[in-house]
Amino acid sequence: MEHSESLTRSAFLLAFDLRKEKLTQRSALGYLLRAATLAELLLAGNLADESGKARVLTAPAAEPGSLRAIVWEQISNAPPRSWRRWVQKDNGKAVRVVRDELAAARLISVERRRILVFPVERITLRKAYLSRRLAERVGRAIRGGRPVGHLDEDVRVLAALATAARLKTVAPSWREARPRRDRIRRLSAPIEPITTALRKSVEAADSASAAG
Q: Does residue 131 contact residue 14 with C-beta atoms inside 8 Å?
């Protein structure tokens, strides 16, 4: 991950399927981005876990309008609620906020047009090598090699989030994940309440979609 990029922006870039040249799993992307922002706040000491709920500690230094600022304001102005509640809240808006940040940073381009009366949006990577490099590092973190304790924190957290979200660009299949359960658990340890909330949110959304 580039040092100038947040976990949240990196999670968005990680969701690109470079072979198909498009974002994958848009239905889960908002959950992933919200979870990445919550992970940033937890690891920075702005939030704490209290019996499965997010508790505010100190306000972050966040740019107004950023997803971090939006999420912090929501949590700080509400009674303690579950991590799953905060992963799911306004997840569609999360995608738009991070998309616009990346477009402003010229890391992606956004083309909008209409097909008949329906608006269509095409998002293209301007620097595909960043997503490719990121996917390689996160994929290696999930599949093994270096001990978990020797991984960079950003890569470790992205690996945990990507696995919880079943992100097809890097996450192993169910069959591949079984022998790696202990490693995935260790990757997730610093942000375990958030990865659990993300996994349950994605599972519930997938079940609802399958049920029609």
A: yes
What is the strand order of the sheet 47-50 is part of? 47-50, 53-56, 81-82
Give every CB contact of residue 191 below 8 A, 6+ residues apart in sequence: 38, 39, 42, 43, 157, 160, 161
Q: Show the tokens assigned to 36.
A: 């990445």
Closest by CA to 140, choosing from 120, 156, 122, is 156
The Cα–Cα gap between 91 and 67 comes to 10
Please enumerate in sequence order all residues whose Cβ is within 8 A of that of 28, keeping only pairs 6 or more positions apart, or say none: 165, 166, 167, 202, 205
pLDDT below 70 — which residues of the chain?
A: 1-5, 174, 177, 212
Nearest to 152 by CA among 164, 167, 137, 162: 137
